Amino acid sequence: MFDPLVDLEVGSKGKTSRGVSRRTVLKVGAAAGGGLLLSVGLPYSAGSAADDANFAPNAFVRIARDGQVTLTMSQVEMGQGTYTSMPMLVAEELEVDLAQIRLEHAPPDDKLYGNPRLGFQVTGGSTSVRAFWKPLRIAGAAARTMLISAAAATWNVEIASCHAAKGTVIHAPSGRKLTYGRLVDQAAKLPVPNDVVLKDRKDFTLIGTSAKRTDATGKVNGTADFGIDAKIPGMKIATVSACPLIGGKLGSVDESKAKNVKGVIKIVRLDDAVAVIADHMGAAKKGLEALAITWDQGASATFSTADMVRQLKDASSRRAVVAVERGDAVKAISTLPTKVDAVYQMPLLAHAAMEPMNCTVHVRKDGCDVWVGTQVITRARAAAAAVTGLPLDKVKVHNHLLGGGFGRRLDVDGITQAVQIAKQVDYPVKVIWTREEDIRHDVYRPYYYDTLSAGLDEKGHPIAFSHRVAGSSILARWLPPAFKNGLDRDAVEAGAGPYSFENVLVDYVRQEPPAGLTTGWWRGVGVTHNAFMVEGFVDELAAAAGQDPVSYRRALLGNSPRAKAVLDLVAVKAGWDKPLPAGIGRGVSVVFGFGSYVAQVAEVSVGKDGRVRVKRVVCALDCGQMINPDTIKAQMEGGIIFGLTAALYGEITLKDGRVEQSNFDNYQALRINEAPTIEVYMIDSNAEPGGIGEPGTATIAPAVVNAIFALTGKRLRQLPIDTAQLKSA
Amino acid sequence: MTYKLSINGGSHVIDADGDTPLLWVLRDLLSMTGTKFGCGMALCGACTVHQDGNPIRSCITTIDSIGDSEITTIETIGRTPAGARIQKAWLDLEVVQCGYCQSGQVMCAAALLARNPIPKDSDIDEAMSGNICRCGTYIRIREAIKYASVAPATNVQKAD
Fold first, then answer.
1. pLDDT tens digits, one per residue of A576-616
2. What CATH number is given to the structural domain containing A103?
3. Distance (Å) from the C-alpha of residue A258 to the closest C-alpha of chain B?
4. With an 8 Å Cβ cutoff, are B43 and A665 in contact?
5. What are phi and psi of A15, to 5 degrees?
6. Contact with chain A for residue B141, Cβ under 8 A
7. Quick one: A550 and A613 in the same domain?
């Protein structure tokens, strides 16, 4: 997802997450049923959170009489480790063991749990730690302060003579101790402390240490409960086929053969799809295959990738909306001795999360229950309410673990469809998309057609840089208020990289694919897209200047010491100055995104058949203060693999109005035998925490194409990598 | 038609067409949801179970082909020495991310370790390259298999 925490000004120096230094609002009181309840409001909701009248908490910390600490919050777990890092923040300040905190998933309620920058509940954009880093610590520290005060009052001793450790307040001079559970009711009567003192970084015992993931055990023994695992009494299984033609509708269905399939219960027709409900998925699939379906083709039945690219190319010469402008890049480029121009392209991509799209729904006259893994739980509820006509409070959404999100579960199209199906029966239905359905009916990462130009002076230094982005606007569909004056700020994010050019112009032209082909978030969209364009192009500039790619970039990073530091670190760790064995090429890239700085070096070989093998990736990261370093390392490793899949294989193509890919045979994913060795080096930093879910993915593709250039002299400006261009036999 | 299947030490009578994939019998009829659906074409390995100790893809294994062989799923693989070693290695090395593919990864790795106690990199490639992980946990899967292969025997849980 796009990064809602940064300002638009891309290409300027050091962006930081906005406003987290503003005062966090906290309310404290007695919990229902006894105990202490802290309500935590995020601080940056346009200033409105600063007064009591507008107080809207985003998370709750409850300490019960038995000492159990419960954290209720909206951020979901999809592999990124949120269920571990969020409790760590509370536990650190509260002085309890991580195991003493239970995480409870928040029910849908935008007022209580909404991301203040977006106005609703969402997990995406690598924002969780960045948003909650201070508020959750303040909550923990406030509770600790109040519990100590309660204990001191009980013993009639000085507050300063007491301290907290492991869920207990201790009066060291007398050796007396009271557990938190014994103190909560008294603490709940105390006023909120005016000045909550957060622990000094040097005193951290949890933050910055590698905590074990709290969700791991169930994921190795089969008990983890993903959306697709929902088990509801009386539930039936459905699978669905939506019109394979972009924007097409359902024509006729002959169901006579399907109805004879053992286990098939009912055929359900929707405007643009047909579903088969059965006792089990095997029967549902068999029933679906037995249907004779005709489709109404719609307006795009001849549409192909070539049409889409032509439209984007045409759009690219239309009037653009300016995103970033400094100096006069166009004029400067025309007067400089060396001009470099290039067109870079990136394809449509599917998400192909391992858990195919699915949703379980029970529609009744008086209410509706939805069981699903979603990144946007309130939108899920609204979707079900819209289909059923029920008021929001009659729709209950039960959120599950996500078997991969990558942005796909920021959309609710599958939920709407499942409710439409379930509405036609009176029992619960689990709707499961086949992998083919999942790939053919994804919301796709947009195709981008970008034009880049630069002017170099006599020394090869780029005095001016321009970058025109042409592509679909995800924001215009997904969050219309954020699409202002024709500018999609995600599409242009990091459009000039982390560099300071004297003259820079980044602008944007919106061009949408035909109705029915929807574009959406894909791990690190804006940054991932622009990192490939900019880092590939800057590598071209270095080559045009006849300079080393690392030192050339270094000279452009004068305003960004942290970017320079990760670049230097990766160069040292990769042995940039040391010779490589014959047949190996090395490429570099450096990216700032989601509040984090990443540099990577990829080492590749290219076979006679053009096949690219990525052998080794070295990654240097500065994500500010680390919460759970092992999870951060895992996110870099996984992000690199995810980005490599896209670089080497990822491409959705259109022909005759249809998506051509359907499963992992023609929409390939990187496998273990193709995985490079990955080394991750992390800079110890006390800066504000940055995001970690997406930057690792963004950085790898340009490092790989730059390595291919170093090895073969061939400059690839389009993904996925075209092995035909690299054949040497 | 009915089929009698031996699964995880128990016997189950299933009334379904013979061409029904085992995956859906496990998940939808027997509520053993630890085995995952990923592709339906034996391309991703998420649905891997053991048939008499050998890893098979349950999404393409029809119930009329199983006969009296013994099926073991993720729900009980921890009762085998190799399965327990693999699960412990997965936890000790923090392999999982979203976790959806990991049932299949654990089943394949356990089968590998049971027949090859000290697998080489090439053995790991061969045994595990049929399993896709979109989160990209491959680096740690490889490390964890090696770790399990040399872990002291005291770490191994006995089968019940």
1. 999 999 999 999 999 999 999 999 999 999 999 999 999 99
2. 3.30.365.10
3. 14
4. yes
5. -80, 145
6. yes
7. yes
